Amino acid sequence: MPSESAAEAAASVVVEAVAVAATGGGDHGKKSTAAHEDSSIKETLISQYFDGFDITQLETAGLRFATESLDQWLNPQALERLCWHQAQGHRVVIVSANLEVYLKPWAARYGIAEDDVIASKLALNAEAKITGKLEGNSCYGPEKVSRLEATLGPLDQYYLYAYGDSKGDRELLACADEPFYRSFAQGGSPWIR
Prior knowledge:
Oligomer: single chain
CATH architecture: 3-Layer(aba) Sandwich
Number of helices: 8
Radius of gyration: 16 Å
Structural class: alpha/beta
CATH class: Alpha Beta
Strand content: 5-15%
Number of strands: 6
Order of helices and strands: HHHHHEHEEEHEHE
Strand order of the largest sheet: 1-2
Mean pLDDT: 80
């Protein structure tokens, strides 16, 4: 059994590896990866690396990753656009197939409420150990729309901007008033319906 600090360090590296795979390996979302596109691969990685971890260890690692590393993997235009929406007074909701264990602390740094982060969640057993599975479905494809509607209510009650970079974003982009595919610039490459 590894020491707590060794386990946290290992979890931090693994959290970063899974996040990098899920965000396009530092290519700023220009290419989709199999891990992002195939939730079964995500569950395989979770099972292989996180099965049996105490959730508090992974939360510590997720917080470290969110504060020290995650921004370097994001498209700088995405962060600019996020800040633009906040300056306009828009409610910002993050909807992602990535894991909430690092997305929630990252979003908190940008003033986004915990309830406005909709992401894949790790399943836990009664002892708060990670089972190696996701709780429910991966937040991917039509699941993104279902979860956003569960949070906001009917989407036609909102003027919705949506940004995506993979085929797992298609359904959400199709619901948006202003959908952007692989572009974050106003007047950029909008989603072609």
